[in-house]
Amino acid sequence: MSEDLLRYDILIQDALRGAVKKILAEVGRTGLPGDHHFYIAFDTNAPGVRISQRLKERYPQEMTIVLQHQFWDLAIGEHAFEVGLSFGGVPEKLLVPFSAIKGFFDPSVQFALEFDPGKTAEELPEELLEAVEELARAEQEHADKEARQDDGAGDKEAATADTKAKPAVQAAESSDGGGEVVSLDAFRKKT
Question: Whole-structure pTM over 0.70, yes or no?
Answer without folding.
Answer: no
